[in-house]
Design goal:
Blueprint lengths: L10 H13 L7 H14 L3 E5 L2 H11 L7 E5 L5 H8 L3 E5 L21 E4 L11 H11 L2 E5 L7 E2 L2 E2 L6 E5 L12 E5 L2 H11 L22 H12 L1 H24 L3 E3 L6 E2 L5 E5 L7 H10 L5 E2 L17 H9 E4 L7 H16 L1
Parallel strand pairs: 2-3, 2-4, 4-5, 5-8
Antiparallel strand pairs: 1-9, 6-7, 6-11, 8-9, 10-12, 12-14, 13-14
The chain binds pyridoxal-5'-phosphate.
Pyridoxal-5'-phosphate (PLP) binds next to helix 3 and helix 4.
Length: 367
C-alpha cells in the first residue's frame, strides 16, 4: 500500500530523544523546549513561541489568551478540520462559518464582512492543505472591525503569502506537529506572537494558570497544555529538515500536476491550485474529481485502494455535522468537499509511485 503520508524520522531525531531521555528531563522542562520555541518563531519571523501538547490546544490557548468567551462570535472557514470549530465551542463562543474561495479553497475574504456583527471578536484563517489564505483583505477587515486574527497554520509549515512566511500574520498563529503534518513531534503544537504580553499570558495559561513568581499560586484558571522535552527533541531535529521537506512536497506536486494536466484540460479533474501570490506547500496533494469524470469520487477512491493506493476524502464542511448543523448555504465548500481527494503525499514518495498513481487514475477513465 502506498500510504497517504508517513513521518520521515532519522538519526538526528533519535540522537536528540536519547539525549533528552538520558538527561532525565522528559516532562515539560528541558533544553529542547525553549530551543524549539525559539527556532520555530525565528523561522517564521516572530518574536515569541509557546509550545503546546498539540495543535488543538494551541488554538484553544490562543482564543483563551485573547479573552474569547460566552456570546462571542468567531469567524472560521466552513471547510476545515473540525478542531477549529471545536476550540471556539470550548470557549462557549460561536463559530460563524464562511464559504470557500472557488480558486484556492481557503476562506473567501469577500464573504466575511457580511457575517460580522457587533459580537464578532476574531477571524481564524486556515491555510487549507498547504495553500495560504489571502491575508491582506482578511487583515483589512480585521482592522476595520477591530477583530483579532488567529492564524491556523497547522497544514502549512513553510508556506508563504506574498513572500512572507505563514505563521507570521495576525495576533497569534498556531501550528500542529501531529504525525501526518509537514514536520512532527508525534503530538505537539505551537503558538507564535510578536506581543510579549500575550506570550506571557499564554505561558501562564499553559501551566495551570500558575503565577510565574509564586509557586502554587493561581490567579486564573489555566490548563496543562505543555509540550514535553521528548516531543521538542524530535521537533528540533525535524525543523532542520523543513525546507527540504517543503521542496520535496513541491516537487511531488509538480510531478502530479504534469502527469494529470491533460485530465484537467479535458475538465475531468481540477488540479491543486497555487495562486500567483502564494507559495503552497501541498501538505496533501489534492485533486477535485469533476462530474465529467464519469465516476464518483468515492468509487475512484475505492478502485485506487484495490490497487494499493491510499487516499483520503476532503474534510466535510463543518456546518453539515450534527453539532454544528445549519441550513445556510455554503455552495463552494459543499462542492469542493464532495469532489476532493488527497493523494499520497509523503516526502518519501518515489517518482515511479507518482507515475503509477496517475496511470491508475487514467486507467479508471478508460474502463
Ligand atoms: C491538524 C489540525 C489541527 C489540530 O492539530 P492536532 O495537533 O491534531 O490537535 C488544527 N487545525 C488544522 C487545520 C489541522 O489540520
Amino acid at each position: 500500500m502506498i500510504p497517504i503520508a508517513e513521518p520521515c524520522l532519522g538519526e538526528e531525531e533519535l540522537k536528540n530523544v536519547t539525549e533528552a531521555l538520558k538527561s532525565g528531563w522528559i516532562s515539560s522542562k528541558g533544553k529542547f523546549i525553549e530551543e524549539f520555541e525559539e527556532k520555530i518563531s525565528s523561522y517564521c519571523g516572530r518574536k515569541y513561541g509557546v509550545a503546546t501538547s498539540n495543535g488543538t490546544v494551541a488554538l484553544h490557548l490562543a482564543l483563551k489568551t485573547l479573552g474569547i468567551g460566552k456570546g462571542d462570535e468567531i469567524i472560521i472557514p466552513d471547510l476545515t478540520f473540525v478542531a477549529v470549530a471545536n476550540t471556539v465551542t470550548y470557549c462557549n463562543a460561536k463559530p460563524i462559518f464562511i464559504d470557500s474561495h472557488p480558486d484556492y479553497w481557503c476562506i473567501d475574504p469577500e464573504k466575511i464582512e457580511e457575517k460580522t456583527t457587533p459580537k464578532t471578536k476574531a477571524i481564524i484563517p486556515v491555510h487549507l492543505y498547504g495553500h495560504p489564505c489571502d491575508m491582506d483583505p482578511i487583515l483589512d477587515i480585521a482592522n476595520d472591525h477591530d477583530l483579532y486574527v488567529i492564524e491556523d497554520a497547522a497544514e502549512a509549515h513553510g508556506a508563504e503569502y506574498k513572500g512572507r512566511k505563514v505563521g507570521s500574520f495576525g495576533d497569534i498563529s498556531c501550528f500542529s506537529f501531529y504525525g501526518n503534518k509537514i514536520i512532527t513531534t508525534g503530538e505537539g503544537g505551537m503558538c507564535l506572537t510578536n506581543n510579549e504580553e500575550l506570550a506571557e499570558k499564554m505561558k501562564i495559561l499553559r501551566d495551570h494558570g500558575m503565577n510565574p513568581n509564586k509557586r502554587y499560586w493561581y490567579d486564573v484558571i489555566g490548563f496543562n497544555y505543555r509540550m514535553t522535552n521528548l516531543q521538542a527533541a524530535v521537533g528540533v531535529a525535524q525543523l532542520k529538515k523543513l525546507d527540504e521537506f517543503v521542496e520535496k512536497k513541491r516537487k511531488i506536486a509538480k510531478r502530479y500536476s504534469e502527469e494529470l494536466k491533460d485530465l484537467e484540460e479535458k475538465e475531468l479533474i481540477t488540479l491543486h491550485p497555487e495562486m500567483p501570490w502564494a507559495k503552497c506547500v501541498y501538505w496533501m496533494y489534492c485533486i477535485l474529481i469533476e462530474d465529467k469524470f464519469g465516476m464518483s469520487r468515492d468509487e475512484l477512491m475505492k478502485r485506487l485502494e484495490e490497487n494499493g493506493i491510499d487516499t483520503r476524502p476532503f474534510f466535510y464542511p463543518v456546518h453539515v455535522m450534527p453539532p454544528y448543523k445549519n441550513n445556510e448555504g455554503y455552495p463552494v465548500a459543499e462542492e469542493i468537499s464532495r469532489k476532493g481527494i488527497n493523494l499520497p503525499s509523503g516526502v518519501s514518495l518515489k517518482e515511479e509511485e507518482i507515475k503509477f498513481i496517475c496511470n491508475e487514475i487514467k486507467k479508471e477513465l478508460e474502463d
